[in-house]
């Protein structure tokens, strides 16, 4: 009989999905309860280990998430916004801990997740890294201390294949900066400057998104004041740190009351 928490991985054939599988397999207190791919994917029905080019692991790849969720206690989801909404409904029915690292979620998607969070534990974050979440807390604190006399710019760099901008992590940092200042990010956000933009609006929180090569993820928060600059930053050199953070969140969610949580809750980062 398996010991520990059964964790499923959806979108297991993707680059991040494969890392999530590896992170579950190496984690004490957890085991891989299932893996899914989209209907029609060539991996469906195969042993996961063989599909990944290795030895059999005794886990069949499934294209029916409901069947996999029925034998799991948690699910790791780094897929697409539309797919995540569907998985959230199934996870709520099964009362699973749903760990969401999907980015590009719009207000309509988030509304569905709020509804699902009435029945299941949802841990959602644009970045599962411990270091990044510490950076978010520092950004909130520094923004509060320095105040509106310091201009805030958030610069993020990712690989050329990333499809959304700004990154989910950059938006986390922007939300933290806005919260530290006591304003709404939607009112302060400035992105994509081009042409004759005029002077920088007072109190603006600027974003710049760079794309190229195979950069995993780099984020910098610049506080520029009169006569000095304060810079906070994080560089990711291994995607496994995101996967390990997701497994940590799945284990943390066991026994929690239904609701929406973040990595700030998981890590206890109330600085």
TrEMBL record:
GO terms for biological process: diaminopimelate biosynthetic process; lysine biosynthetic process via diaminopimelate. The active site is at residues 158, 162. NAD(+) binds at residues 11-16, 101-103, 125-128. Pathway: Amino-acid biosynthesis; L-lysine biosynthesis via DAP pathway; (S)-tetrahydrodipicolinate from L-aspartate: step 4/4. It catalyses: (S)-2,3,4,5-tetrahydrodipicolinate + NAD(+) + H2O = (2S,4S)-4-hydroxy-2,3,4,5-tetrahydrodipicolinate + NADH + H(+); (S)-2,3,4,5-tetrahydrodipicolinate + NADP(+) + H2O = (2S,4S)-4-hydroxy-2,3,4,5-tetrahydrodipicolinate + NADPH + H(+). Keywords: Amino-acid biosynthesis, Cytoplasm, Diaminopimelate biosynthesis, Lysine biosynthesis, NAD, NADP, Oxidoreductase. Belongs to the DapB family. Catalyzes the conversion of 4-hydroxy-tetrahydrodipicolinate (HTPA) to tetrahydrodipicolinate. This is 4-hydroxy-tetrahydrodipicolinate reductase. The gene is dapB.
């Amino acid at each position: 009989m398996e010991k520990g928490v059964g964790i499923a991985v959806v979108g297991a054939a993707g680059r991040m999905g494969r890392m999530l599988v590896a992170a579950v397999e190496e984690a004490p207190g957890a085991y891989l309860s299932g893996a899914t791919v989209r209907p029609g994917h060539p991996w469906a029905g195969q042993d996961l280990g063989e599909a990944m080019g290795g030895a059999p692991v005794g886990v069949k790849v499934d294209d029916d998430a409901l069947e996999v969720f029925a034998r799991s206690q948690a699910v790791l989801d780094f897929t697409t916004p539309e797919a995540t909404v569907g998985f959230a409904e199934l996870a709520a029915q099964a009362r699973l801990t749903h760990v969401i690292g999907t980015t590009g979620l719009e207000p309509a998607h988030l509304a569905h997740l709020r509804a699902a969070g009435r029945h299941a534990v949802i841990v959602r974050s644009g970045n599962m890294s411990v270091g990044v979440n510490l950076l978010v807390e520092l950004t909130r604190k520094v923004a509060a201390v320095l105040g509106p006399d310091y201009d805030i710019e958030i610069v993020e760099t990712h690989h050329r294949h990333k499809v959304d901008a700004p990154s989910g992590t950059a938006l986390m940092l922007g939300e933290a900066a806005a919260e530290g200042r006591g304003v709404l990010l939607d009112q302060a956000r400035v992105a994509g400057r081009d042409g004759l933009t005029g002077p920088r609006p007072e109190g603006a929180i600027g974003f710049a998104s760079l794309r190229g090569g195979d950069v995993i993820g780099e984020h910098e928060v610049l506080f520029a004041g009169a006569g000095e600059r304060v810079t906070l930053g994080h560089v990711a050199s291994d995607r496994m740190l995101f996967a390990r953070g997701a497994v940590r969140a799945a284990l943390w969610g066991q026994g929690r009351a239904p609701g929406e949580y973040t990595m700030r809750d998981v890590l206890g980062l109330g600085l």
